[in-house]
């Protein structure tokens, strides 16, 4: 059996990719959802996404109002404008949801992510990893004779760029928190 050949100018598509090629292009949106801080709420929100085939690119959640028993869920998702509107409407109808904000369309927002990178190496690769970490303002939070663990915060794009540069230098493991975001300004 001969290997599959792809002619120049064509692309491979998954048999499971059922998206309409004529549909509107997908956009990435960051949603901030204020919910009751009680058991099962996160499962209901995630269930809404999985039950309708929506993907979650990033998810963070934490209590933000202890006295009011409220948590904030920050969800980064991707879809056509119509799908994003549908997601927001369906989230807003869930009983434990108090508020849904689309930070992508409501104005400027600040998005940050925290990541830890374990990089192993010796000699020049070790020196280069330290040099790049300094450029990216990553902190060394653990060090042995053969490895470093770097901590870095920034936009998801900055985290991705750092990961790409660390791969050839000995990146063996990484952990990411997901996006935390707030709208800018007084509102």
UniProtKB/TrEMBL annotation:
Species for this entry: Meinhardsimonia xiamenensis
Name of the featured protein: Acetolactate synthase small subunit
BP GO annotations: isoleucine biosynthetic process; L-valine biosynthetic process
Xref: NCBIfam families: acolac_sm, PRK11895.1
Self-association state and partner proteins as the record states: Dimer of large and small chains.
CDD domains the record matches: ACT_AHAS
GO CC terms: cytosol
GO function term, MF aspect, one: acetolactate synthase activity
Enzyme class: transferase
Swiss-Prot/TrEMBL catalytic activity: 2 pyruvate + H(+) = (2S)-2-acetolactate + CO2
